[in-house]
Amino acid sequence: TTQYLALVLKQLTGKSTKEWIADSLTVEAKILLKHSSQSVQQISDALNFCDASAFGKFFKNRTGVTPFRFRQKNLIFY
Fold first, then answer.
1. How many other C-beta atoms are found inside a 10 Å radius of the C-beta of residue 24?
2. From CA 28, how far away is CA 43, in angstroms rounded?
3. Residue 23 above 90 pLDDT?
4. Are 24 and 16 in contact (CB under 8 A)?
5. How buried is 52 (Cβ within 10 angstroms: 0-12 exposed, 13-18 middle, 19+ buried)?
6. Of residues 31, 17, 78, the one with CA closest to residue 59
7. Residue 61, H or E segment
8. Contact, 48 vs 26, CB < 8 A?
9. What is the pLDDT of residue 76?
10. For residues 17 and 72, what is the distance between their CA atoms, to the nearest angstrom?
11. CB of 47 within 8 A of CB of 7?
12. What digits encode the pLDDT tens for the residues 26-78?
């Protein structure tokens, strides 16, 4: 069951299911921001956030910077 899976996950890793999902979303967002030309709105949509504002708040809460600022800091100049 989902409850059992959540219990085992918590016991093995110390993280809740919610934390695992948030970590996965954060990693995926970082990859998309760094390696794609999609807009923040498009990335927000791709990750199933209700709007770009909710995505921005989530991302800033998890990383300390806005998606736009993260993208600026991670631009690679050749």
1. 11
2. 9
3. yes
4. no
5. middle
6. 31
7. helix 52-63
8. no
9. 59
10. 31
11. no
12. 999 999 999 999 999 999 999 999 999 999 999 999 999 999 999 988 765 54
Nearest-angstrom CA–CA distance, 16 and 24: 12
Token pair for 42: 């498009």
Rounded to whole angstroms, the maximal C-alpha distance in the chain is 50
Residue in the structure block whose two tokens are 């806005």? 66
Q: Which tokens is 19 given?
A: 């934390």
55: burial class by Cβ within 10 Å (0-12, 13-18, 19+)?
buried
**Cβ distance 33 to 74 under 8 Å?**
yes
Q: Which amino acid belongs to residue 43?
A: I
Which among 77, 2, 1, 69 is positioned nearest to 29, based on CA atoms? 69
Residues written for the chain: 78
